[in-house]
Records
---
Amino acid sequence: MQHATAEQQALRDSASRFLAQQCDFARHRRRQQQHPAEFDRALWTRMGELGWLGVMLAEEVGGLGQTPQAALALVEAMGGQFVSEPYAPALAAAQLLQTLGKPGQQARWLPALCTGAALVLPAHAEPGARARLTCVQTRAVRDREGHRLDGRKNAVPWGQAADAWLVSARTAGPVDDPAGISLFIVPRDAAGLRLELREGIAGEPLADLVLDGVRMPQDALLGSPGQAHAALEAAHAFLLAAACAEAVGTLQAVLQATRDYACTRQQFGAPLARFQVIAHRLVDMFTQVQLARSMAQLAAQLLDTPGDAATQSLRLSACKAQVSVACHFVGEQAVQIHGGIGMTDELALSHQVRRLLAIERCLGDRFHHLGVLSERVMQGEGLYA
Amino acid sequence: MHAHDLEAEHALRAEVRAFLRTALPPALRAKVLAHEPLAKADYVAWQTILNARGWLAPSWPVARGGTGWTPRQVYVFEEECWLAGAPEVFAFGPKMLAPVLMQHGTPAQQDFYLPRILASADWWCQGYSEPGAGSDLASLRTRGRVEGDSLIIDGQKTWTTFAHWANRMFCLVRTDPQAKPQEGISFVLLDMDTPGITVRPLILLDGAHEVNEVFFDQVRVPLTNVVGPLNHGWTCAKALLGHERFNAGKIGRSLRELRLLKRLAAQPDARGRSMLHDARFAERIASAEVDLLALEQTTLRLIAAAQAGASIGVEPSILKIRGTEIAQQLSLLLVQASDAVASTHVEGLPTPMALVRQYLNWRKLSIYGGSNEVQRNIIAKFALGL
């Protein structure tokens, strides 16, 4: 089994130092008070200069040509700081362009994505899809010039800042059919497209895309019609692994803050940590962080382990199920051990707890993934033969 | 289940499987999988077979009869043994006493005792716990008084597992009553047939005779049976706790029980349905599988870090806590599943009563070897600095 290489650890550590300076809690709070939220182009460009935005892309287009593990090391570092920028989704979009894009599309977008000059984000999830990747109801109907898109895409983080979105739409098949899903690159000025803005669980800006007769020319299609599912599945796997990595960074920060608080806060003439009930609770949090770290590492390994796709997806479900428990448990206990102060908006911890909740809710929570696993158990299969 | 084997593990796994297919006697395997109580002769038979293959004590140095395997390979070996339905190797000799002797014993002690452990010529028990010293081991009161070249031991041990099968005991006795609790203790080897030793059975809540009380009444032991310097027994005892930590989760055992659980849950009830097809029960199985995968990955992660040269702190205490919690949960699910099965006996599966006995017996898992609460204290102190 591989574990984080020295190179990845060095990358994560230097990223942590950079982010601690650039993305501290004061900046986070200032930005949360902005309405509408303003995308930090300067930071994004800096990430491009550091090579982070093209970390997995080929060197020919300006990328670093690294493995997903390197990208996930960066995501973990971001989890420990206050970074709400849509880093993992942007990487997923770049991967989709690299996998499905025609040479012209790649030449147009990939170099600009590497530098941060352009932002492209995936817009796949739909309302009520309940984390099912194949649940695509947005239709793309063939017309003379290309396709006409109608439907709704849900909760794209920093969606309003994107120059274009990768919108999935059904060119054939019923709602849950893996075949018949196509991917279009839709620019922000497309006629018939409307954005509805709202805030996510952790205060991050979200955009819902409402597509009302959006006409896209034929060259907006990525890859062959109806064949986007495999690439979307790979992007989904990356995003799941990224959610786990971000969780680990956040969990570690929350555990550390809670441990430090319990060692300094005095009640009944002693630090909280002297009370065994508190000490054991912290140990249970520590245990959950360790288990989450192991599963995040497994998720990262699964991304470049060749093997049966069904087994891979099942194991990713197990990773998210376990990491979700950690998000939930560690978040709740951190607030509990902090007591009243843990409830307040002014404490950085409460923002991290909300971030943990957001991670838990995204891409299917424990309930969802245990459901997926239970179905397989009922068929006489499961994680173990 | 082993999608992450490296090449070296992959080859070993195949070799171990092939060995188990031919070497493990079918009757013994059936007994283990049916969760029937094993006799001492069953354990001795299996350990003799393992020893003939050179695999009884894989973690020992090669010069002493070990294999030279990496910790990861030892893990693979143990997992395959569990899954095949092999009896567990009795830990007291090969896994607990042997590392202490290798680290602190005299050459004479090593040369005499180590080969006898491999040959199953000696069967060891562990004399640690006392009526007033369980998790708080340092408050033990059994006394050892030096008289010439002997130690005269008086006192009592309890929870002494399989003392009634053992011909020897390694134990902790207080040899300096004036010293601080952890400082006046010695690590002593004794023959169970020494005059003055009485073994009395303690029957546990599952009805089994596993543990005993052992009384010492002026038991005379030569001073050459002390391991390490007199009054330095606590160091030996701590060394013992440091070994075999990566297998503390006993994941192979839980994987075996998980397999049994799935087979049992697939058996029809009186209406021809099964627990496996009850979504609520299937989710409990799925949940146990996730728990096991997370523990397995944590174990492999710690082993990988150790093999890469990182110093591993108290993280293995997590493996003990989670491993025992999961095993206990599985033992409960097995009882629930067996309760639903219509036929009173299914070939190759444990009886409902055997599973109830296992459920009851396995309450011990979170108590022995440093209770799970003590493990939490250890993590709190050494990993979190509380």
---
Amino acid sequence: MLGLFALLLASLYLLNSALEDAARFGRLYIILLLLNSLFLLVLVVSIGVNLAKLIRQQSRNVPGSRLTTRLVIVFVVLAVAPAAIVYVFSLQMLQRGIDSWFDVHVERALQDALDLSRSSLDLQMHQLRQRAEGLAGSLVDVPNTMAPFALSDMLGRAGAVEIVLFGDNNRIIASSGDITASMVPRLPNERILRLVSRGETYVGLDPLKDSGLRIRVVAPIPVTRENPENRMLQVLFPVSERIDALASSVHSAFGRYKELVYLRTPLKQSFVVTLSLVLLVAVLFAVWVAFLMSRKLIAPIRELAEGTKAVAAGEYHKRLPVGRRDDLGLLVLSFNQMTERLAEARDTAERSQRLVERQRAYLETVLEHLSSGVISLDPDMILRTVNAAASHVLGVDLERYKGRALRELGQEHHGLAGFYDRLAPHLKGAEPEWREQLNLFTPNGRRVLMCQGARLPTHGETLGGQVIVFDDITVLIQAQREAAWAEVARRLAHEIKNPLTPIQLSAERLQKKLLPKLDPAETEVLNRSTRTIVQQVESMKGMVNAFGDYARTPLKTLLPLDLNALIKDVVELYRSNPTGTRVKLDLDRSLPRIDADSDRIRQLLHNLIKNALEAVGGVSVPTLSITTRVIADDGMRFVELVVADNGPGIPSELMDRLFEPYVTNKTRGNGLGLAIVKKIVEDHGGRVWAQNLRAGGACIHIRLLSSSVQARHNVTHIKGDAA
Amino acid sequence: MGWRVGACLALAVLIGMAGGASTAQTSQKRFSIVFADVSKLAGVYRLDAKVNYVLSRLAREALLNGVRLEFELEINILQKRDWLPTSKVADLDQRYQLSYHALSQQYVVENINAGVHETFPELDEALRYMGEVIDLPLIDASLLSPGGKHICQIRARLDLDRLPLPLMIRAYASPSWWLRTDWYTLELP
């Protein structure tokens, strides 16, 4: 750029020099003018390109473009304003300066001086004309042969420098004078010859080659008989030195002044052109430099802006090149330090986050592999976290309920409605920890859950939600209960059944020993008493055996079982019952198999049918109906067994405790029939409930899980438990 | 001379003086070569020619205001070659200076090459005198390659570079000053 500037200065200097010394730099001036014009054009194009680029950048909101614009405007104003002022004043001074060279008085004085010189010369010319005419007259009678002598004589006498006598066709007859310069005398031109041939005398001034004047007089020589040829005499007179010098000086001054006057306008134009060109080139160069400087100044700022944008976009490792040692360089250095620290902070945060993620993943893994179900709720009871065990325990895919209210779980799975209903008071309450045991009928069957809840830490003013941990304790409870019943049965056997045999044996021994010794009347009493003792002991034995059955050990291996076939087998035994009860079967042929212990299910059927037959004992047309069907509920398939009779129905006071041991309204029986039924159903993960029919009679519903067989088309959909 | 056309264009734009195109094509043909003839005498080629010079108003005005005008008669001797461009054998510039002597009210023509000058009370006479080229020796026949075809190109023009600088800028931008003949070509005998 400096080189370019130097070149520009040199060019402008030469331009100025050329203007001052036109003789030396005449053509160079034109070349320089052209070169500078070209340079100007290049500058204009370059500035135009820069300007267009700047406008484009500004319209695209490129960082730094506005600042560049401002800087360019400032630079341009700083460069153009003083230059423009100087230009205007220079122009005015130039105009006035050139105009001041010229004065009307001077011009008139010079013209007058020229006229005066002419007048002075005219006077001299007039005298010389007469002298020359005299000389010509004296040659009238001189023959051509004598002419050289006469001319030689005349030269000194007339004070001429050259005398030439010539005839027709410019034939020189004789000459005299200093003709060494041109070897031959300079003869008059045709116009003079024409004038002289008409008999007139020509007198005129002849400017010499370098300087000085000569007065040329051409006079005709009259024709005589002796000299019939048309002859002319040309006499060149010198102008007196004094007059010649003065006239030459006046002429020179006049000529130069006139030329100056004539060249005034072109001269002004030349100066204006040069000045304008110099100014334009300088200003445009300044503008171009302004663009260049602005760009250079803005470059680090633009880089900083782009760097900041990159940092905002997360590129914390962005580094800017530090190429300057000024304040901007310091700023770039600070920026680099800042991004370095940001990157470090980001890396630390990322490490922490990764650590947290790892811990979270670890916790999730632990949670996933926990046998306890874990769910978390936010303060609005929206499900946020679940583990696999939770879905497994509740028998539904809880992942689907993430982000939804826990209440919806109960709405979609009726068996799980209690989950929310029972826990809601705890969830809405303020207690930090709670515990609740729930009895739910999940798609996996009846489940006893032990739920423990805790309030999560609060965030600000809002409550932090709840975490609920629940365990499926169905098996545990069942095992405990079975163990308890087994213990009861064992104790009964030990404490009651064992003494019964000695009692029975003692009674029979008493009868055997005393009977021969007693009279008939006493014998009757003894027999009756002994029989009573024996019967009651038998009865007690039966009762204890029945209880033993109830508390018997758990199920054997569960195998797929065709319930319809089993029902038919069992019912066949009751076809010929003493009450004449009609047994109606309505069995679903598409009934899937169930995983069950066939012996226990057989016992269940016996108990139910016996119960029903006992219930219809006093009915005129006793009827027993056994129905099986497939039920789809909560996306699960169940096999439902319904045993209904048309007996008197279940008394309402017994309805709540119907399935408890020893709850009965019958005089016969041990009161364990339905309790055993319930136990078998629960051992199979099923559900049992009873209800009275509107038309009369009672109805026992048993719902058992089917094996993993696909549901058929004729699946009956039900809503609610009631038939 | 191409740069001159370019310069002329550039200056026309710069000064804003040119009313239109300032190329030679648009200027009037004020200068013309009426005839030219080359003869060989005593082993030297000699040129006889008549050039008609007609000055433009601006040129006459400048002349009367003391500006000296310089004319150039460019003569090129070229050799024609088969399959090759013509080559210049010799060139000759015959220069004349025309001025007005205000005191004597005479037009002075100076043949710069010959060093002689002539005065004329009328401009036309001066121009006519300047336009007459009589028996101008061009080149010795021995300098030309024997058997070669040679041509002579003649052109007369007003030399703008010799004008005073302020006028030169204007002259280059104005067609009135663009005074020149076309090249006149004739074969050497």
